[in-house]
Amino acid sequence: MKIALFLLSRFVLFVLLYIHHSHSVCLPSALPSCSGKAITVEHSWLATKINVGIAKILAEEVLGVCVEIRSRGEEEAYLEASVETSTPYFILEVWSGTRADIYEELVMNKRVLVDAGELGSIGRIGWFIPAKALDFNEALDSYRAYRTTEVAEHFSTNVTFPDGRFLGPALSWASVDETLINNLGLKLKVEYAQEADPEGEIIQMVEEHVNQSKPILFYFWTPHQLFAKLKLQRVFLPDYTAECYSAYSVQNGLTDCDYAAEPLKKLYNPLMNNAEHSSLAAFVQGFRLSTDEQTQLLYDVSYGGMTVEEASCAWVKQNENKWRTWIALSAVNEESFPLWSLGIAIPVVVILFVCFVLVTIMFLCMLLLLCMVQRINSTKDQANAPREGPLAIVFTDVQNSTLLWELSPELMKRALRTHNKIMGESLAKLRGYYCKSQGDSWMTAWKDPQSALDWCLRVQILLRHAPWDADLLAFDDCKEYMGANGQILLRGLRVRMGVHFGTPDIVMDSATKRCDYLGNMVNLSARAEAQAQGGEILATKEFIESVQDHIDMQSYETKLKGQFKLKGIDLPVSLFRIIAPKHALGAFTDEHLETPKDHDTHLILVQSTQQQVPHDEAIEKLVSESNMKRVLTHIYSKMRERYEEWRDEMSNETSTDGFGDPHSDQ
């Protein structure tokens, strides 16, 4: 009897020791037992099982909190956690972007769940194919390829033919693949995985198809262990936008873009904010696993022969320095944070807070000042905008700017800064309105046509005497040309101008909140500018009549140039040019600008004509000669480049008959 009692007691002791050992199998220093209770969930994919495996070990063996693991679907877990009011409940992998509707409802609106921060890994759902599939068609990494019959039949099965098969997730998972296929016009049909083990079924089918070199298009996600074993290629869909996955778009089947790459998050119920559960809440907030760490753990379980428990325990033993910081966040007590330190901490916090407030106030004041300055400048600019006709419109453009950009981009950058400075400062001085620009082309509007004329003259004069780079002046289109009397005819960038006077359609741009001008009146100004040569101002008869008194007062000489048949204008329009007298230059020269010895400058106002009649001025002769030289130089340069390319190709070409062989007689 005594022997039986002895053996029974030893058996009971052995069982107790085994139970204790099984509980503390991971950490030898584990607490002897856990108390209380917390709930967490694992989903049907492996990554969540590893997350909760690590959390369970640390919660029970270090914090002393018993953890119950439940298997739930995503939406089911969120709803269950939101109504749990008696037990702490936490979820360690939340796809807040994919489940944006329920996340916003429970966390942001109803506040029945608390956002515990990011998990540390980046999750992305997407479409994938085996990398070898690109051997069949290198365009298979783009969704557009799946609109073709050839590709669809290549991916088809007996069930989906003639459409290709898309292997989707379980129906209960978050996906919009059918919507994407319909909205993008793809010849595909979705074949959903079984609810029992959708991840396992997808992996099995992908591995079978890869081993048999068969094509397969499938729904998958990262991080995942399969990427460490197989070479998979993502299929690129249209770029993700928030609007594309808004509740309205998803509910109405309007989604037509890729899934989002999203930082995975954690959630817990509000009960964990109570003081008695603060240690567990802080632990969950600190819990983090990077994408690389998760991928390695997934590989260890799937292909390394380890169980979830073994992989979780191995990670805990190898990463104590990391998880100790999670525990430290939850273990703030009088021993780790003595009360005397509050005497230092509180003043420091107060000082930092005051500094933060002062810096914030200064930043806001500077931002407010900047906004006020911008508003004042915008108001001034808008005050110069003509609100009713008639008015003057001026178009400008730099002659042969495309070629100049091709020859020397750096020189043109500096030259364009000088050009814009002269144009802009003159515009502000004479109260003109800047409409828009494209490259080096400007469009301006003027209430007073006399100011428009003065601006054209002022800009042309200042451009000729601007501080251009010597290298720029070496180009044919920028060289300095002197008249017979020593006056400067051309120098630097040559700007042509077209001006017309009339009543356009005036509109307010809803995007920029600025006035804009439309209609044939504007088109005529642009067509006049297109007929000009560099250094010329071309104007319509209507504009000349509007400034005739000003022309007479300034003693400008106008001269008929001819008629042009302009695109979009039914009738030919007459053209004139104007020559500014010597004394006019001083009126348009800034105080700091040195007045040249000879003030004579030739500026042209032109009306439209059917055929351009060449004028006999020296400026046109110079421009024509310069253009011919420029064209011949450019053609020679291109022919030389082509010859060099041809010679290189011939020297590298080899063939069986000896053609191109350096040792051949041919």
Lay out the secondary structure.
Blueprint lengths: L1 H22 L11 E8 L3 H18 L1 E7 L2 H10 L5 E6 L5 H10 L4 E17 L18 H6 L9 E5 L8 H8 L3 E5 L5 H14 L5 E6 L3 H4 L2 E4 L11 H5 L9 E8 L9 H9 L4 H13 L4 H11 L1 H11 L11 H42 L7 E8 L2 H7 L1 H21 L3 E6 L2 E6 L2 H16 L5 H4 L7 E2 L5 E3 L4 E8 L2 E4 L6 E4 L1 H12 L5 E3 L1 H6 L1 H7 L2 E8 L8 E8 L20 E2 L15 H35 L14
Parallel strand pairs: 1-2, 1-3, 5-6, 5-7, 15-18
Antiparallel strand pairs: 3-9, 4-7, 4-8, 4-9, 10-12, 10-15, 11-12, 13-14, 16-17, 19-20, 20-21
Helix pairs in contact: 2-12, 10-13, 15-16, 16-17
Describe this structure in words.
The chain has 666 residues and is α+β, with helices and mostly antiparallel strands. Helices cover 44% and strands 19% of the residues. It contains 22 helices and 21 strands. The strands form five sheets. Strands 1, 2, 3, 4, 5, 6, 7, 8 and 9 form a nine-stranded mixed beta sheet that branches. Strand 19 (557-564) and strand 20 (573-580) form a beta hairpin.
Mean pLDDT: 80
Q: Identify the overall geometry.
A: elongated
Alpha carbon gap, first and last residue:
115 Å
Structural class given helices, strands, pairing?
A: alpha+beta
Strand segment count: 21
Give the low-pLDDT segments.
1-24, 332-344, 582-624, 653-666
Query: Helicity, in percent?
Result: 40-55%
| Total number of helices | 22
Gyration radius from CA atoms, angstroms: 39 Å
Strand content: 15-25%
Largest sheet: 9 strands, mixed
